[in-house]
Amino acid sequence: MTNMLHKKWSTYAALASWGTAAFMAQPTLASFAAHFVINPLILGAVIWLAHHEGKAT
Q1: CA-CA distances (angstroms) from residue 46 to 27, 28, 52, 54?
Q2: Distance of CA 9 to CAs 2, 19, 22, 49, 56, Å?
Q3: Using an 8 Å Cβ cutoff, are 18 and 42 in contact?
């Protein structure tokens, strides 16, 4: 199970989303960009990657 988890890119993308969520807690202009641009892109990538990784197995 752990081996399979580390081979999936969607896992790393989900961790990146979690990291940007922590960054968004700061009241700066960059955190607004992370909130409205970067995090939605990462979450979209998580969905896309998980969908295609699910098809491959």
Answers
A1: 26, 25, 10, 12
A2: 13, 15, 20, 7, 13
A3: no
CA-nearest of 27, 45, 2, 11 to 35 is: 27
Domain that holds residue 48: 2-56
Per-residue model confidence as pLDDT tens digits over 35-57: 788 888 888 888 888 888 777 66
The model carries a pTM of 0.62
Query: What's the structural domain count of the chain?
Result: 1
- Whole-number CA gyration radius for the chain: 13
User: At which residue do the structure tokens 């970067």 appear?
Assistant: 38
